[in-house]
Design brief:
Blueprint lengths: L1 H19 L5 H31 L11 H16 L3 E11 L1 H4 L1 E9 L7 E6 L7 E2 L3 H17 L4 E9 L13 H7 L3 E8 L5 H15 L6 E7 L3 E8 L12 H14 L1
Helix pairs in contact: 1-2, 7-8
């Protein structure tokens, strides 16, 4: 009611301003304009306050309350039911409330109590994501999937060093160690994140030939790959996402395309 009354006052002042013209004089015109601006500011503040109240309101009836203690307990219970082992919080907690309709979302880093090195990020929410979403399943297939990539790098003479990690997006699906790695890599959107360092001091054409050779080998890993190639320390010269497990695998780039990509990469550094 208060905002409505202010809005009516604003309309009255605006009408007065329009009717004033030159007959009443510039002082009345300036006064009316000032009052109109003051009213608009108050109305705007009232609307913003109402929007803030809606945003800060809590969702009712969710699986956990909008506080860390309740959210922690719910997420850890969900993970234990999902994998049959006990987890603990290891860091990076965040509880964000998105209002009465979407509710609160809780994310954190967790690890099994008996394997604290197996850190994963997990998420639950009061509405859309009541089933916990996480990427813990990479640890079931990590060793086997990374082994082929490690072998490729160690057997390639122009690779100076490498960093390899199996990664996947968060999912509500429950994977187990008994699931086949082929099905996992094909359907989970998991990929090998490979950062490979080449010997320094070569020409662009020499690097392009080496990159093309390495891409051909990476295509045979039977896994999707996000590949970063660096010269020496930290100079990126090439980046490519190899979605080789799609129905129509992408074709290898030409040497000319690789050289062009290298030039773009250098400009972005």
């Amino acid at each position: 009611m208060k905002v409505k009354s202010m809005f009516c006052t604003f309309l009255l002042l605006l009408l007065l301003l329009l009717l004033s013209g030159c007959s009443i004089g510039e002082e009345l015109t300036e006064w009316a304009a000032g009052k109109a601006n003051d009213t608009l500011e108050v109305i705007g503040g009232g609307v913003q306050e109402a929007l803030d109240d809606i945003h800060n309101a809590e969702h009712q009836g969710g699986p956990f309350e909008n506080n860390l203690e309740s959210a922690r307990a719910y997420l850890l219970t969900q993970l234990q039911e999902k994998y049959g082992i006990e987890f603990t919080i290891v860091g990076d907690e965040d509880l964000e409330n998105y209002g009465p309709f979407a509710g609160a979302t809780y994310t954190c880093d967790v690890a099994p109590i008996d394997a604290p090195e197996q850190v994963t990020t997990a998420l639950v929410s009061q509405t859309m994501y009541q089933d916990v979403r996480d990427n813990y399943a990479v640890y079931f297939f990590k060793e086997e999937a990374e082994a082929k990539a490690i072998q490729l790098c160690t057997e390639t003479e122009y690779v100076q060093s490498y960093e390899i990690a199996l990664e996947m997006p968060q999912t509500a699906k429950t994977w187990s160690a008994e699931d086949g790695i082929g099905d996992f890599l094909q359907t989970s959107d998991a990929y090998l994140n490979m950062k490979v360092y080449f010997d320094a001091g070569k020409s662009d054409e020499e690097y392009a030939n080496l990159i093309l050779d390495f891409l051909e080998k990476a295509y045979r890993l039977n896994a999707n790959v996000t590949l970063s190639i660096l010269e020496a320390e930290n100079d990126y010269i090439f980046w490519e996402k190899l979605n080789v497990l799609t129905e129509t695998p992408p074709q290898l780039p030409t040497k000319e395309e690789i050289i062009e990509d290298m030039e773009i990469a250098r400009m972005m550094m």
